[in-house]
Write a structure and sequence with these properties.
- This protein is mainly beta.
- It has a single domain, classed as Alpha-Beta Complex (Nucleoside Triphosphate Pyrophosphohydrolase).
- It is built from two helices and seven strands, in the order E-E-E-E-H-E-E-E-H.
- It has a four-stranded mixed β-sheet, with helices on both faces.
- The protein is globular and about 45 Å long.
């Protein structure tokens, strides 16, 4: 008999991360430094929890607007990762959606609408992230380690 202990009270959660792209910032995505929650001090994409009955794209739109004030379009699936960090009891299935800024909305730069959760939002070149992978939020780090790269051909 295996000597593993499984805590059935803990269940994985579902998160949606949004890879926001813009013609004004080729090859770049929006990142913010988290604060006040799991992964505080780490860099993450806009996103949050998938709500009951919500589609992934709907969650991406809602979270992006709530956190950055940006409206997005051309939303599509990027990748999905299953991330477990036992030391901090973190287990999320994270759906990464890719989207372009809706330039017709009039707003093309992110605004920090939840300063209690994020220090600021900035554009970062996907291929030249200024931080090592261990400073990226758990799921984003996993996605990059697994070879995920956004499709910048239409942005």
């Amino acid at each position: 008999m295996a000597a593993s202990i499984v805590n059935h009270a803990l269940r994985p959660r579902v998160g949606v991360g949004v890879v926001i792209k813009s013609l004004r910032h080729p090859g770049c995505v929006v990142l913010g430094k988290r604060k006040g929650s799991a992964g505080s001090g780490m860099y993450a994409l806009p996103g949050g929890h998938l709500e009951y009955g919500e589609e992934w794209a709907q969650c991406a739109e809602r979270e992006t607007e709530e956190e950055t004030g940006l409206k997005i379009k051309n939303i599509k699936l990027g990748t999905v990762v299953n991330t477990v960090v036992k030391e901090v009891q973190y287990h999320y299935v994270t759906v990464f959606m890719e989207a372009d800024i809706d330039e017709q909305s009039g707003k093309t730069e992110p605004e920090n609408l939840e300063p209690h959760k994020c220090e600021s939002w900035q554009w970062y070149d996907w291929k030249k992230f200024p931080v090592p992978d261990d400073e990226l939020f758990y799921s984003l780090s996993d996605a990059r380690k697994q070879g995920f790269s956004p499709d910048f051909t239409h942005s």
